[in-house]
What we know:
The complex is a heterodimer. By secondary structure, chain A is mostly beta strands. Chain A is built from four helices and 37 strands. Among the domains of chain A are: 1-29; 31-200, Galactose-binding domain-like (Jelly Rolls, Sandwich), CATH 2.60.120.260; 372-506, no CATH class. In chain A, the strands form six sheets. In chain A, strands 31-32-33-34-14-37-36-35 form an eight-stranded mixed β-sheet, with no helix packed on it. An eight-stranded mixed β-sheet of chain A has the order 15-16-17-18-22-21-20-19. In chain A, strands 1, 2, 3, 4, 7, 10 and 12 form a seven-stranded antiparallel β-sheet that branches. Chain A is elongated, with a radius of gyration of 34 Å. The relative contact order of chain A is 0.09. Chain B is mostly beta strands. In chain B, the strands form eleven sheets. Chain B has a nine-stranded mixed β-sheet. In chain B, strands 4, 7, 8, 9, 14, 17 and 18 form a seven-stranded mixed β-sheet that branches. Chain B has a seven-stranded antiparallel β-sheet with strand order 25-26-42-28-37-38-39. The longest helix of chain B is centred in the N-terminal third of the chain and has 17 residues, at 7-23. The chains are: A mainly beta, B mainly beta.
Amino acid sequence: MKKSIVIILALLLSAFAFYYIGKKFFPFNKFFGARVIPANILLSGAYSNSETANSLLCNFEIDPREKLPPGFYKGIAHSGHFSAKAFGKNSYSLAIEQTAGQIGIDKLKSIAMSAWIFIFPTDKEPDGIYVLSVTNAFGISKCWKGIYVKGSSAPHGKWFRISGLFDLSEIILQPGNKIHIYFWNRSHTDILVDDYYIIFGGQKERRGESTLTDLTKNPVFNPRFNFPPFPTFYAEKEEISNRNSADLAPDNSVKGGDIFPEDKIIAGNFLQTRYGTDAILVIPSSGKPELFSFCPASTSFKKINVILPSEVLSFFKSAKALKGRFTENTYDEVLLEGDHEFIVGSFTPLTILCSTMKAASSEFKVIWKSDPAFMATGLKSKGARILAGDLFGDRYTELLTINDDGSWKILKFLSGKVQKGGWTVMASGRRKNSPFVNPGYGQIKITLGRFLPHCPQDLILTVTGNQTGKKLTSSLLKFDFAQSAFVPPDQNTFDGKLKIIGLDTLKPSDIFLFGDFRGNKEPQVLRYNRDWRFDLKELNFNDTTFSILGNVDFHGYDKDHNPKYYGVLKLVAGRIIDPARTSLLVIGRNCKNDDFATDHCKEYQNLPELPDFISVYSISNRVLPVLKM
Amino acid sequence: MILKNTSIFKFLFMSMNVAILFTGCHKNQPVSGPVTNQFVIRDFIPLSNWHIDSTGTLNNNPSINKSISLDYTNAFTNGFVIPTINQVAEGQFAFEFSLKNTGSSPQKFCYKIYYQNESYKFPETDEKDRTRQNVNAWENFYGSWEDTGKTFAETPVIPADDEFHKILDHFGIVGNPRNEKRYFSEKGNDRWKRNLRVGKYSFLLVITTQENFQQKNIPENVVNINLTDKNRFVNPYFYFLYGEGKNLKNTVIQKFPYYLKVVAKPDPGAGIYINPIFFNTATSGKYFCKTCGQDSLLFRNAPFEQFIHYIDPNTKMNNIPVIADVLHDHYSKMDYNWNSHFYSKEELIAITATTTKWPCETVAVDKGDKTISIKNPKTEYGKWEKQDVGVISRHGFTYGKWTIKAKLTELLNKDNMWNGITNAIWLITQSPAGWNFRRDCNNTGYMANYYGGQRDKRVKNIGYSEIDFEILKTVPYCPSYFLPPPYNYGTDDQKNMKSWNVPLPEEVTENDDKVQVACTNWDMACREPENFNAGCNAISYRGQTFWAHRWDNNYRAITEKTPERDDELFGSEYYYFQIDWEPREIIWRIGPSKDKLRIVGYVNYAVSSIPDNQMLLIVSQEFHNTKWWIGSPYSQDNIPFPKEDLTGKIYEITIE
Lengths: 629, 656
């Protein structure tokens, strides 16, 4: 008798143990019994990644001409015409099925999900769960979570949304693990579901390592030289009367002020207007140049017809254009590099451009054109770079040509009193000891500009990195006429390599903008980078390093159309509005696809949230904070 | 004092009796009293030297509802007194009644006056057994003469002359009317620790024979309200109106049918005191002035202090390094989204909310228009700060209808972007000390500490209590199947605006111009209420259903939320906010005027332990860490530092 009792007890215990262990490792109460959405019969776009890469939508829309497949319901839908049904106790809706590998394990730290629910009017209380389940290759549950819809508070006879957020960070996922999302109806009600929306990954952690400024430990902020956070200076939008459009001169009698980021755009004193401001020379891919000049009285730009000699068009079309005061003229000229020739030319002046309503024209006149003999001197090998700048500090513009092997030449235009004048090689260097060779065989970016306020000549900034874009170094050099070589600005104290202090290294992708942005007759430097985000900073170079003065942001734009939000943003510096201050011509566009470079793309799209624009901004006057090194 | 009545008075009395007979209980007639074998009472007038009617107008009719405002002079140290010498020359109310000895010989009679706050009381009788005192009725605010040792007073010898004789006496309403030791300190009876309650007071006159009194036919703890029975006080209103006292022979119990309404109106123009616990004049007094500081006049009479928030170090956040005027600078959701994605950790600034270093800099009194202004100060580069600001009242009350007329800072801009501020109008315990303990929690007890976490011990008594209006941009928590909304935070791909500028879910944007008015009762997770529950639970009140939410059974607060338009609450000239704290329920109301208030929150004793201790009022503008507010569409650390002051103005406070 006792033995049989013991046996019965043991059997009972075993049964309980089996039940609980089985439930734990094979939760049959959470068995996946739903039918997977047959993605192949859904209409295009009905089951897709939404506009952001981290989400998934399913609206159950199918071809209405086809026979209604199992699990679908026609006629009541939150969107479109079809939804998924879960009718009756222990029924399942159609399920999303994806593997962790398909979604990306890095995006599965958390899942937010929502769906729209319709409960058919009934006296019965609904009891359902919008389920997220993860199973391994054997179908054993690794995770089972749900959003519960139950009780009398749930609306009947109308669509309502349910949503939830599930943390999966503690679940070790394998690429083959299956993720199912479906609705499980546990009541005798009839329920429809529609518009599954799944967001993978949750909030992405910010870039970087850690916060540097902790005011909870020390409430007094002690700025560290070149370490963020930096102050922000604002570039204020100038009134140019273009109604925030992409047309620089929408009311002009000469139509066509749309300027694209990939156009060659140069601001310079080409027209010698009486206001002394820079005109904007735009060379579109068609090669037909356009000129614009700002008229202060009407606070608008005027477009100027450019008259081109027929033989010059090809230069504009294929050319690289450089601005400078190459000859003895006191205004800016243009050097155009054709396939096999060079020309230097200028535009005829328009001193009374703004006071007349008439359409204005300016003719491009060639000052100098290369001949075969000149080209034979080997001025430039194929692929060589040409930079223009005041290398000698004489207020005229020289050319620096750099060949692929690092050899270089400096040419100066010498005006002949008898002959028409021409370019003369003033200095040259070979590969050996050339500052233009990247020892890392990676990228090298060479910028010529007024980096040092106290130095009257333009300097060369080289930024090099290895093939992976790392190990970045930069050098600041000036041309020394006596040594006929590029040397550090202060040879006694400095080897030319800039010390990098702080987190912000110079990169080959940096674009430098030069000018008197503050209007204080001092040259300033802006560095523009879009590697990760819009990043415009004002830098102050000295002989050995540079300091970051602050970030530059925009202010005064229409609505919330901050230029920095545009996928493509072109900045051109020039004395566009005020002869005493450098402003920024800013062109914003968005690309249809993500595969584009910083300043242009194959196809643009004009987004209502961020419409195309062209504007001019000027940095407001401000007091700079004193940052100690 | 005894006055012999004239025959004319007799005639009037007879006429009045007739009038009562034919008109029922005509309000404008003095009440004539019942008759015993020994005496007849009439003309009980409890406030014969106070003639302000319920509208605040002078009216000499004795048989009307009356009102009085609390005199704040020196009330901080002494507690409130009704009336003060500023209101009535004697500093006491006079009461009178007329008595006719119908016995056979001259005799003295004994009488006692009681008062009780009727607005905020528990019913005197047990709901199920009306012969028993309600278990909480001893908490009611009742009293008698200030000296509880003065039990029953004796009349002079009243001749059996078939005439009415007028008895005159005095009494006042004071704090700690039972002179309970709980509210004493080494300095004596701190009556302010149990301040008199606002609202309507009734008056009860009990007259009996000397014999009754001498033979102790009335229990000692009724005669002397200071005495307890098994540590419980006997409410004399219960005893005389419902208990054994109602059957006492030769005893007249007369409840005056009119009431005195007591209103507290702390004057915002009367100054702000700076508590030396936080600051001293020598090091922090550079903004001190006549209306804000630490001088003795302000100490005695200022109805408010600058409130210094406790800053929990665990609320540290890494804020974007952006300074902007969110309300006026076109700061948009797109700005928010960009800033949420495109600052690196190194650029962020670790902060907690702060409090002022310079008292009186961010709070100010305008004596002219009798207002207080508070401001979260603007910040600048290098001095990033999200500074909380507020004022706290200095005179505690238990219960009351707390109505605040204020124009606090707007919270949303034209793009309905939030500036990160939570406007709060809240009541907080005056002290966690034993004298201010809440009623026992007899089930599992209260969570012992406000900041104690889930594993905090449970205790029978605590002093912490809080009732809040917190108004901010967040989401409702109920029903639970849409918490949190499906936020898509996007990615930091600058090339595709849609990747980082993901719209908020439609259930959030459909309330885009609204802020949530969160109404919270911190019941410290006392599980005694019969319907105490976690999760979302519906509670109905006057045709409205509110969703009360509690995260779990150890969560210390229950919250209800109602979405309201920011422009209406904070964009208009002012708005009214009312916390109606009653013994068995709390009702939160808001509205454009005091007569157009609507209910936005309701809890009662069945779902949440209603505090019964003394509390103070705080009006504040705070930067909350949004981790407190699960599911909020905006995260505080992604909201800029203020570029301009965010100013709020308090116009009027009434507690009644």
